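for the record, two folds in this file. i put them one after another cuz i was lazy. first one right below, seq on top, C-alpha cells after. the second one comes after a little note so u can tell where it starts
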Amino acid sequence: MYKILKKVNLNPTVTLMEIDAPPIAAKGEPGQFVMLRVNENGERIPLTIADFDRQKGSITIIFQIVGATTEALNHKQEGESLQDLVGPLGVPSHVEGLKKVAVVGGGVGSAIAYPIAKKLHAQGTVVHSIVGFKTKDLVILEDEFKAVSDRMVMVTDDGSYGEKGLVTDALKELLDAGELYDEVIAIGPVIMMKFVSLLTKKYDIKTVVSMNSIMIDGTGMCGCCRLTVGGETKFACVDGPDFDGHKVDFDEAMQRGTMYRDFEQKCHEDVCNLYKMEVK
C-alpha cells in the first residue's frame, strides 16, 4: 500500500498528491509515469510523475478530476493509501545537450511540463516557459515555473491573467522576435500540441510532444495506447510518451481519445452518486 503524505487542491478541478513510494522515487525521471489503482476494484490509470524526492522516498502526482477514477482518487485523504502503484514506466525525456529550449505547457499538462523544465534548468539549459490556461482560476504551478525559467510567459484564453491569447500566440511572438531554440517541448491537450507542432514546423524547429493516451497495463501488452508516428504504429507506454511532434498523427489520436467518452461519463456519474455528489 502506498501512503498519501500530502494532498493539496491546486484549483477546483486539479489536485496534487505526494505519495510514499521509495522504489519509484529512487529511479523516476522527468517524462516517466506510474500506473495506479485507487482500490482493489478500481481500474488502472496512468499519471505522470510530476516531481520526486529521492531522499524522502516520495513522488508527486498532479491530476485533473475528469472521470470515475480521478473522482475516487480525489476522495482519498492524507494518511490513506492507494491500492497499487507501479513505475517508473515509459522512456525518460531526453534533454541532455540542449542549450536553449522553449517548454510549452497547456492546462493540467503543465504538471508534466514542469519536471522537464526543472531538469533542463538544473543542467544549465536556458529555459523559456510558456504556460497557458483557460482562465485565472485554473492557473497552477506558477511559482514553480518561475523558479526554473529564464523567461516565463503566462497566457489565459480570456485574458483574466497574464497575456490574453493561446500558447501558440506567445510562442510565435518569441520566434518572430528572433529567439532560437534547440527544441520546443509541448505538453497539454492533443489539439494544443498539434497546433504548436504545425507552428514550429514552419520555423524548422525540432518539437517533442508527450502523448498521454488511454492505457490499461502500461507495459505494451494491451495495445490501447497505440498511435501513428511517421506512418508507423507506436505505443505511448513503451515507445514514449515523448514523440516527434512533426510526425504524430494528431487527428487519429484525438479520435481514439473520444472512443470511450459515453462510458467514462456513466462511470463518473456512478462514482458521484456513490459519494452523493453533484455530477460536474
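(here's the note) second protein begins now
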Amino acid sequence: MTKGYLKMARALILAAAVSLAIACGPSTGLAQTPQPPTFQTSGNRAFDEWRDEFARRAVQRGRDPAVIGRLLAGVTPDDRVIELDQRQPEFVSPVWDYVTNRVTERRINDGRALKTEIQSTLDAVQQRYGVPQGIILGIWGLESNYGGADLNWDVQTALATLAYEGRRREQFEGYLMAVAEMVERGLADQQQLRSSWAGALGQPQFMPDVYLTTAVDWDGDGHRDIWTNRGDVAASIGNYLQDRGWRRDEPVFEEVTLPSNFDYALADGTMRPIADWSGRGVRRIDGVTWDQTNLSAQLFLPAGANGPALMLYHNFGVIRRYNNSDRYALVVALLARAFDGRSGLVYDWPRAAGSLNREQIVELQTLLNGLGYDSGNPDGLFGSGTRRAVRNYQSAQSLPADGFPTTALLIRIRQSAGISQPEPARVPHGLQRSGIRELQRLLNRQGYSAGRADGVIGARTRDAIRAFERAQGMEVRGRATDVVLERAREAGRR
C-alpha cells in the first residue's frame, strides 16, 4: 500500500467522522446530562443561589429534573422553621416534669383504645418483628399522638429552609434528595408530603431517608402509607426497632434498690452482667429474684442518688436509636408498662432538690472547666461529658458521685472556685416593632443590609443579624433581641 493511498484513506475517514459529528451533534455516543430546572426568583437572592446549585447537583446525581422542579417551585425559606430550629429554651425542665407531662392518663387511655381497635394487627406485628406492641404504641403516642398531631409543613419547604440556613446543610440536602426519590418512585404523592417543621413524615415521624429504607407495606396494597394506614405505621415502627437491634423477649429496664454505702460512680454507663450487680447488693425493687443473670445492664440514676435507680438493658438503647434521649426512652417504656396494666416507678422523684436552668448549667460547666474538670464546651446542655465532670468533682469532694446537678452542688462548686455570689445572668428579650426598626437602621448603616426598616423580621433581617453576630464574636442566633440592639448601638458609636 503506497503512502499516497494511506493519506487518501486517512482523509476520507476524517471527512466521514466530521460529517457524522455534524449530523448527530457533539454528544453522539455519550449520555447527555439532563439540564437542571429553572426557577422564578423567590425574592431572596442567597436562597435562590443555594436552590439553583442544589438543583444542579441533584440532577447530576441522577434525580429527575422535572421532580426537582416541581418540589422546589415557589418554595421560599420559612422563618418559623428557622426559629424553631434555633430556639434554645432558657429553662431545662427537670426529668420528673418531662416524664409526668408525657406519661399522662389521656395518652395512656388513648393508647389502650387504639390497642383494642387494632389488636389483631398489633399481635401480628409483634410476632413478626419481636417488638412488644406496648413499645410500638408508646413511640406512636409520643411522635404523633397516635396520628392526631397536625403536620403543618410541606416537607420540601421545611427541608429546603433548613438546608439553606446552613447549620446542617449536608444532612438536610440528603433528606431533600430522599424526598425526590420518593416522588420519582411513586412512593408518595407530592400533595401527601406533609411533615413536622423538621421534615419528619407521617405518624411515626420518619425522616425521608428512613422512610426509603424502613417503612413497611404491611397490608400489601402497594403503598407504604405511614400517613393514614395504621397497619403500615405499626409495622414500620416495629421494623425500625428490629433493624436497629431489638432483642426479642429481653426487657427494657427494671427499677432497683441499692445498698447503703453504694458506689454511685458505677452509674457511668458501663454495661455489666446482672450477676455482677447482684453481687454488689443491687436488687429488683419488686423483690423478685433476678431471672436473667446472664444479661448485661447499666445503672441509670435519672435524678441522682436521691431518685429512682434503674437497670437499663440493651433494648433501652435501641429505643434511643429512635430518639437519642434517655428521657424519651424512659417515657416509651413507662407508657408500655401502663398499656399492659403495670405500675410505673415506685421510688419518688427528689423534687425538693430542684433543677438547674440553662444559664446555671452554663455556669456549672464554666466553673468545672476552670477547676480542671473537663465538661466540654459550656453550652447549657447536660450531656455525658458534663455528667462525667460532675462525678469527678463529687468524688474529689467525697460526695455521692451520682453525676446529678442540683442547686446545692452549684453553690459548692462556686465556693470551690472562690465565688460567693454569681453575677446575674443576662437573659435576652425579644424586641418590639420599634426596637426592630432601630436595629434594622443600625445594621443598614453598618453595611449589613437588613432591608427596609419596617419593624418586621424577615429572612433578610435575620441574615443581617447573623452576619453582625459573627462579626462581633457573639453566639449566632439570628434573633432580634435587646442584647443585639445594645451591641449594635455600641458598634455604631465607635
